[in-house]
Design a protein that fits this description.
The chain contains four helices and three strands. It is an alpha+beta fold. The chain has a domain at about 10-55: YefM-like domain (YefM-like fold, 3-Layer(aba) Sandwich). Strands 1-2-3 form a three-stranded mixed β-sheet.
Length: about 90
């Protein structure tokens, strides 16, 4: 007896929308993103952005993620009093 295993990969169609149309259809576009559809935002005839759902990204932008720039001044002595440091450079 043989067992045949097939994997079917369905690729969602890519939706393209202009930045101008995005302003009036933002709810519809977010619904498409939530359903897993790929959306490309076109600005002046060129692809500029691709929104992805938070579940797909695995994190939100506000939590810092793996951006190495966050916290890079944390242990610097001159940054203990940020207001004093700013007054000093002005």
């Amino acid at each position: 007896m043989y067992t045949l295993k097939c994997t079917l990969q369905i690729q969602m169609p890519k939706m393209e929308i202009t930045a101008k149309s995005l302003r009036s259809r933002v709810g519809e576009i977010l619904a498409c993103v939530d359903q897993g559809e790929s959306v490309i935002i076109i600005y002046r005839g060129k692809p500029r952005a691709k929104p992805i759902g938070i579940d797909e990204a695995g994190e939100t932008a506000s939590d810092g993620g793996d951006f190495s720039g966050f916290g890079m001044w944390e242990n610097h002595e001159e940054m203990r009093d940020v207001n004093a440091w700013l007054r000093g450079i002005r």
